[in-house]
Structure formats: structure tokens, C-alpha cells
Amino acid sequence: MSVEWAEPWRAIESANGLYLACGPVMRGGEGWANLTQSTDDDWFDGGEVVDGEVDEAEALPAGHAAMVLSFHMVYHPGYAVPVLFFEAANEAGGPMGLAELWPRLPLSRGVGAGADAEQIQLTYLALAEAPHLPGRAMLMLHPCETAAVLEAVVTDGSEAADEAAGEAAVEGAAAASILASHATSPLAQFGQRDMLLWLSLYGPAVGVTTGTRVGPGLGSVTFTSRRTQVAAPRGMVASSQAAATAAGLAVLQAGGNAADAAVATAAALAVTEPCSTGLGGDAFVLYYDAESGTVQALNGSGRSPAALDAEAVAAAVTAADPAAVRLPWDSVHAVTVPGAAAAWMDTLEHWGSGAVTAAEVLAPAIALAEDGYAVGDVTACGWTAGSHKLTRSGNAAGSELLTAGGCAPSAGEIMTNPGMARVLRTLASDGKAGFYSGWPAAAILDVLSAHGSYMEASDLEAHTSEIGEPISYAVDGVRLYECAPNGQGLVALVALNILASRTEELKALGHNSAGYLHMLIEALRMAFAAAGPYVAEPKAHGEFAHLLSPEWGVAAAGKIDAGKASANGAPSASSDTVYFCVVDAEGNAASVVNSNYEGFGSGLVPPGTGFTLQNRGCNFALRG
């Protein structure tokens, strides 16, 4: 297709992706002037077209500096979806970095102009190499936020469009209204027609489908990425890293069962995806025993130091930030006892086959750590986003997780981790005691004490996993199992209870339709709010059984407005973690979460270990 654009458009094709660079498309200033200008010189005020001429000098309040954004919508091979990259320049044409740009974006209104860099980079924006322009760093909008932008680009609720397009457009506008009420990104205001033109021309080439008509009433964005169904007669492992999946399969092939393979997978993930998981984090396991037909739960989360002075910590944090309600990510007091090592060994002890030793189970991960592995695309992105934690003050051992040049590795780069290999060998030979009483424990205390932690050797030595009955909820003949609090699994069960009385309505709406998703989102919002007080030390709060009663579920479901979203409130930044599952030939199954909490957790690396300590204590409230 040959396309000609009037300046300032530039249609560009590259071997790595198809994109359209355009600019200038937006102007704004400190606090945001609320005025935007498209490439065809139309001005918008809060999304409404401004009639007549606009005097730019008068439009921008005094002291506000204009900025120009240039967009590049690119198919990202790592995420396998289109991702919005952009560059920002000030009025003089100078480049703007993330710190300078963030307070000027409308997105910062809901998040807070003073949001910390980690929150911004994990959830919204990051500085990353553009896949279509190797070696050129650009600002990247998180794929989830990009999806919100695309939804806004291809939907419009104007009445004129409804009248022109008929009932289909009316339905589309209603769907758009619901979706828009859930949209978290005011970046959806950015150059809608600009991106819409790109989507219309190049969307099919990158897996995005819009309608055939440019304008209001278009259908929603569809990501057409697809994976074929996989079947296997003697076992299966599903994880976020090919090398970790291979490690689990190798143990199954050696005669191990689902529990053995789960530990092998977890250990390999700790090596290959250290930004998300590792020995410095916690683990939660649901194990199904095919012979007995029962499910058990293992809670492998650690506790805060026994000597921690909560009042003193709260006073110190609020003195530095009077508005703080929770521990900051970089507080050493957010580091709890790492429970993953005990969880792995307890999984082997309670459910392992006995056909393979701990050394054989951990051997694939040790080989990856010693011989090296290729860093994946998504992992490289997460590594880059969290690398500032590894270089934080007083964290000399953070270099163990960086390249020789002191940087995060690029996709495809070979990384080794001799420190991690040594820890795994100790765990294989000496078991839990080797980790919680041996040299790894000494290294943990070394880095924590240097930062003022209350953690003592007795805290590490006293750690144990808790194995017991899971909580569950059944609907339409299917029972969902979750680990009991202090984990978040209760939220899923409460949401199911809310939706149970409206299953027929959900079926009528159609899977993943706007109305269907609206119902799920509202149920989850209510479930998070209701379950929150119980997601804590189980002994500290009352029972939550009433949240799973039919009466409570029906009453809660009745509060959902099918045509309107509830108030957003002030949700905290969210991020992902590592989940994987294993099934063996006998039908035994392991469902596992192993996590550092936030990316790289606290970032603190115990010397010589090659892993970071989690910061799960960020969830602790500073006020009752």
C-alpha cells in the first residue's frame, strides 16, 4: 500500500515493525493546561473541539511550558501486542526525560505527581529501547495502558454518531461508555485520530483489528494473538520461562512427580527471572493428590522480625512523609523473612515422589546459573525497570545481578549467577537448615543490619511453612481452591460469590463483551474491598465465612449497576508476579506462586547469594 501524508506526518516501514511517527500532537504544561492540539491543528479542551481560533500564548497559563510529543505505535515482539512508544520535547526542542515529563501528564493526576519512580516504571511508563529503532531509547507506555488507549481510540459515544450509524453504533457507544468509565489512562486523550489512522492502515499487520470506518461507532480493539492447544499424555509444565519449563519436564522424565517438578521449575525461574521471583521471596502452593482426590495448601510466606517496633517504624516513615499510609518500597522494614527456600523443601518432603533427590531436582537450575541462559524479552524489560533498585545506596552486592558494565542485560544476552548456584548447592546438600542457619542466613543478616533492620538470626531459624486445608468456593459444578489469608486468594472466591447469582446474565452478555467485563470488574472491586481486612495474619482478624454466604453474595451483586462503573477510589499501582503449574502422569497437580512481591523486591542483595530480598511488608499499614 502506498500512502502519502501531508507534513508533519511520516509513514515509515521497518523490518522490525510498522509504525507511523507523527508530531506535534499535544501541548501542555506544569499541572496540565488541559488543551491539546492535533496534527491537523484542531484544538481540544478536555476532549471537546474548541470553536474558532486559539491564541496559544493566552491558552497556556503563565509559567506553563509547552511540550511536543511524537508517537510511535509499534508491534512489540516481546509482548506480542502493539505498544505505544513516544518521545517528548520541550518548547525549545530539547528532549524530556521521565522525571521531567511525568508531572505534566494528565495521568499523574490520578496517580500523584509525586509518585515514586518504581511505581511509575512498573505500571505506566518506562524508558526502553524501541524495537523498531535499535539503540534508541524512548518512553514506552505499559502494554496494559496501551490497550486502554486503543480502546479509547476506536470508540466514541457521541449521539451524532449513534444517529448516523444506527443501533449497532448505539450498542457500541454504550459499550464504549462502560469501558471508558474503567479506563485508568488519560493518555487515551493523546492524538486519537492520529493513532486511529495508523490502526486503520497497519492494524491487521500487527494483530489489531478496528472497524473499516474512521470515526465514531467503531468496534472495540481485538488482539488476535493465539496459541494452539497443547496435549501431553505423561505430564505438563507451564511457566513464564522456557528454560524453567524444561527443568520441570526433565524432572518428570527422570521419574519425579508434580511436586518434584514444581520445585525444579521454581528454582529455574529464580535463576532466569530474578526480577520477579527467587529465594529472597515467598511461595504459595496448592497441591492436588490424585490418589486421595484432595487438595492441600502450603503457605510459604515469612514474618516480620519479632523485635520490630511498629510504632517507631511508623513514626520514622511519617516523619519523612506525613502523607504515607504504608511502608515505602525501599524501607528495610518491608523485608520479611524469605519463605521460598523452606516452601520448596517442604513441598518435596510432604508431596515429593522420593524417586529423585533434592540435588537432582535442583540440578537443572544450578546448571542454568553456572553455565548461563539467554535473557528473554519480557524479562529484560522488567530487569531494566527495576535495575535502579540494584544500584541503591549501600547495596554493593547488587552488581551480582547486573552485567559487567553495571547495567541490566538486554534481550538475548547470556547471564550467569554463580552466587545463586552456590546457594542452591547448599540447599540441596544441607536442606532448610543450610539456608536459614548457614552462610546464606549470615549474608541476609549482613545486608539487613547495615540498613537498620530488626531482623535477627532467631527470626530466620524460627521460620516454618504452614500446610493445611485450602479455602474454596463452588459455582456451576466447578470448585475453585485458594490458599487462605494472609494470601489474596480470598478475593477470587468472594468475587465468584458475588457473580454466582448473575451467571445467566453473564452468559447472555457474551464472554468478554463490554458488559461482561464490566460485571467482572465491579465484582472484583467489591471483593477486594470486602476481603481486604482479612488479608492479614489469620490470628489477627475474625472469620470471613460470611463473605462466601449466598445471602451476602446476592446482596453485593444487587449493588452492581449494569450501565455505570462505581467510583475508582485511589487504587495503588499494580504489577505481576510469577505463577506456574505442573501436572504429572498420575494426575497429581501443583499450582504455585513464587514472588519477590514488587520487581526485585527491596533490591537488597545478600553478598554472594545472587538474589534480592522481597519487600512484601509494603502492605503493612502505618495507621490502624
TrEMBL record:
GO terms for molecular function: ubiquitin-like protein transferase activity. InterPro entries: Atg3/Atg10, GGT-like_enzyme, GGT_lsub, GGT_ssub_C, Ntn_hydrolases_N. One of its GO terms (biological process) is autophagy. Keywords: Autophagy, Ubl conjugation pathway. PANTHER family: GAMMA-GLUTAMYLTRANSPEPTIDASE (AFU_ORTHOLOGUE AFUA_4G13580). This is Acylase ACY 1. The lineage of its organism: Eukaryota, Apusozoa, Apusomonadida, Apusomonadidae, Thecamonas.
